[in-house]
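Progress report, Aim 2. The chain analyzed during this reporting quarter is listed below.
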Amino acid sequence: MVWGLVLALGAHFMNSHLPANPVPAPPTTQRATFGGGCFWCVEAAFETLPGVISVTAGYAGGATSNPTYPEVCSGKTGHAEVVQIEFDPARIRFERLVDFFWDIHDPTTRNRQGGDIGTQYRSIILYHDEAQRKAAQASLLAAASRFPRPIVTAIEPLAAFYPAEAYHQDYFRQHPDAPYCAAVIRPKLEKLEKLAHRPK
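Predicted structure tokens for the chain:
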């Protein structure tokens, strides 16, 4: 009886010292969303970065809900081909992702990347919060001197992200010898490998 009373009082004491609304633990990962031409290429590039956990090809920036690839290619949805990156901020910062973004495409060509032409191929950063917006704008200003023409990349809030069809995911890894992969993606990855060793 006495021991039971002691346990009850101890439990009451412990519970009375717990915060009424415990502060949730901060997320261990964050997300970033970029569009820089064909999402097969952008996906393959970001997958090379240490600290990047996953990259998902998809659509964002338009008004149509749950768009399909043919609909996006029509240019009528307003969506761009984008990738959404899940990353570990303890290993790679958002600022590093944006800096890398300038390296993997030409941000000075409007609605075009090489032979890929259309609004779905526009250069765009879709920020998830105010900190990302400020970091993206600061990075754009800093990157301007690296290009002979003005940067036309749009910086907009992310309203919704729609994952692309399954056959678009990890396209380069699954089809490394496909003509587009061999002619466009592999040379770009080789170029990025050389840039990784450039003086900072």
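The mean pLDDT is 89. The longest helix spans residues 179-195. These observations will guide the mutagenesis work planned for the next reporting period.
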